[in-house]
Amino acid sequence: xxxxxxxxxxxxxxxxxxxxxxxxxxxxxxxxxxxxxxxxxxxxxxxxxxxxxxxxxxxxxxxxxxxxxxxxxxxxxxxxxxxxxxxxxxxxxxxxxxxxxxxxxxxxxxxxxxxxxxxxxxxxxxxxxxxxxxxxxxxxxxxxxxxxxxxxxxxxxxx
Amino acid sequence: xxxxxxxxxxxxxxxxxxxxxxxxxxxxxxxxxxxxxxxxxxxxxxxxxxxxxxxxxxxxxxxxxxxxxxxxxxxxxxxxxxxxxxxxxxxxxxxxxxxxxxxxxxxxxxxxxxxxxxxxxxxxxxxxxxxxxxxxxxxxxxxxxxxxxxxxxxxxxxx
Amino acid sequence: xxxxxxxxxxxxxxxxxxxxxxxxxxxxxxxxxxxxxxxxxxxxxxxxxxxxxxxxxxxxxxxxxxxxxxxxxxxxxxxxxxxxxxxxxxxxxxxxxxxxxxxxxxxxxxxxxxxxxxxxxxxxxxxxxxxxxxxxxxxxxxxxxxxxxxxxxxxxxxx
Amino acid sequence: xxxxxxxxxxxxxxxxxxxxxxxxxxxxxxxxxxxxxxxxxxxxxxxxxxxxxxxxxxxxxxxxxxxxxxxxxxxxxxxxxxxxxxxxxxxxxxxxxxxxxxxxxxxxxxxxxxxxxxxxxxxxxxxxxxxxxxxxxxxxxxxxxxxxxxxxxxxxxxx
Amino acid sequence: xxxxxxxxxxxxxxxxxxxxxxxxxxxxxxxxxxxxxxxxxxxxxxxxxxxxxxxxxxxxxxxxxxxxxxxxxxxxxxxxxxxxxxxxxxxxxxxxxxxxxxxxxxxxxxxxxxxxxxxxxxxxxxxxxxxxxxxxxxxxxxxxxxxxxxxxxxxxxxx
Amino acid sequence: xxxxxxxxxxxxxxxxxxxxxxxxxxxxxxxxxxxxxxxxxxxxxxxxxxxxxxxxxxxxxxxxxxxxxxxxxxxxxxxxxxxxxxxxxxxxxxxxxxxxxxxxxxxxxxxxxxxxxxxxxxxxxxxxxxxxxxxxxxxxxxxxxxxxxxxxxxxxxxx
Lengths: 159, 159, 159, 159, 159, 159
Fold this sequence. Notes:
The first copy, chain A, is of the alpha/beta class. Chain A has helices spanning 15-27, 47-61, 76-82, 95-112, 130-138, 149-158; strands at 3-8, 30-36, 67-72, 87-92, 116-120. At the A-B interface, helix 1, strand 4, helix 4 and strand 5 of A face helix 1, strand 4, helix 4 and strand 5 of B.
């Protein structure tokens, strides 16, 4: 069985993330979305909320049956090995993303022998990111093109 | 079954290519190396020779049992679809490679609905390419760090 | 009156070029498409044919009234000055395009005091280029998503 | 009338910004400098001060008659539409700037249908930025090559 | 005498930094490692500790006789001039590093007439940085491939 | 003695090359300009002519006493070792140059143990290259800002 892991802080999950996972689900036998705690910065949503929002986002967009959402509180490399994944996969948009992700990929290969593959972002969604979406939401702009409905509802509730 | 296709002109196959395929063979159930005719430029080795050199290169480096070498005379996207691959995979070293490969990936997605994943080059082999290796060989420099022994022998024979 | 010049060899014009010119026509009072001779390489279509194909491409896609097609046999910078343009405009897709175009822009500023502005490619068309489209056409692939119908007809006729 | 908007936080305006606006004023009929509140980070100068410093900077460098300074407290895209601009314009220096600005440009196109053009930085000023200039000033280095005299005076006064 | 200065905050020194300095020591007559105070952010180790860790790191890895460690509390450009260096040298890994370092290099050339040369990172160490190493250490991962033993001991002591 | 080698095909030498060598001459005890045969493409000027033009270019611009011009018919790495250089130095303008030069630098390090340092191009000359200058000359444009007077004279004579 070929299992891919798609790691990130997903604070919150965007339509760009959902697009990547749906495409991955057609490439691999199973896809684990690893929602990492990301202790370094204060998240907008808790780890549990971020996992729940992923579940709701997949439910509303049509969920591939081979996707699982897991929370990851330790190192991604270790978590990948524990879950016996064939590879980590990260979305990339441009050379800046690549330079950063190559460094992380090498760290994960050294730590746990796990390879990382890169999947190019869908061009029409390449401008979508969690931080841009949150900024737009706070400025009162429409974010239906950026965020799943469940996330927008959660943001409205948190006001 | 998760099958990846690794396409290229491989004129000739380098130790960098072999490294990528060996890593891919551990990620997917099967890896097809698609040696393309590359009609646009006059190749150093014929399509058949390039396939043979791949076979010999894998034999000398320890061949993963799940790798097959096929020649591809048409469009890579069509060939990938015919062979029911889960994804194409290309090696990338830097942002310049990415910019080029993103364009090709999009073309192949449009043509045949086949996705492309990128695998980062092993850093210690990132300077290895077919053209650099051929240039060094022609200048009389040692190329054992660039090319499989079978390729070096074929170059010597072609003199 | 604010006039922009969109220079290129357009061998042949693609749907990406048409998209850029249509967007430019909404930004400036007038847009001159400058089809340059490009003596350096052997073109697929003659200068006259490339101008005609632009006219037909605009006709089929809905022509903005403020676009003119001119052929340019000398230096683009000189031609821009003669036509009293406010600025040259080039489409760019990524950092590689930018690095190249910055050099050309500086040359044109030095030669004739004409500035260059860059317009980002529409993401869904960023993989479209003359050379990719010609390659696909030669391989027998459908190119309706890359080239205007007039160009496809001209290619068929030239066979 | 062809009106361009040059948006930024300008905290504070540099000689690089002034150079870009003076060049833009020769390309468009009118240029609006939109000084945005930039609520995300604590600015060095207030929004009003930043607008005043722009006015003084233009006065000391020779002000083009077709430049207006406006403060913008909402979304740049909305403000651009309200002011009926033909396009937003951002200065760019390299591929890293481009990757970032392409994302913002796409957001603004989606939000309000406003296009963004990029103007390459004057090479001799490409190292000039607000943050570098402030850092140098705080270290006691001369900043006459980075900042308008009015900004240097304001920094001295704020000590 | 040809003296190079290798400046940085080195918070803390990594095996990547040591590799660069050892290579520089073979290129120049003397290499000064300039450990800068870096007032902008709260450092993990004090300036004195960072200098001491450099001394210990060089001692444990085999110290070239022509390397000196100095602390720098002012501007790097001024410090370079005071120490009559032939050039500053910075390590670079990719285009993102280059874009940033070109800007700093220009500032230092303007401030004190001192040139900057770039030395490419050893590929097998290109993923090693102070921040990645500290992050891994905090997550409990092994960091022997990232940090000198003296730094790991200092981190353990600081717990 | 610290000797740097500045290799290239220099077909022909530009004012950008002269600028780099003059700056290098102030950093190292000696600078060897290695004019390589570059057998791969048909050069505009012969190897001897390219060396002579370098001599004339330095004579007209004020020649640093520690610069020597040598022709190199073999591998640059071997030539560097034979001449006991401390390092090769290449000029770079942007990330695209860096990506290419990093590959060559690694090859030369592997072949002969010789390191490569990169010197950033002077921003006001970053658009100057041999190919751009030749193209402009052929189009009848003034090239005094691109080429030494000796090169312009040689081009005129070759007509």
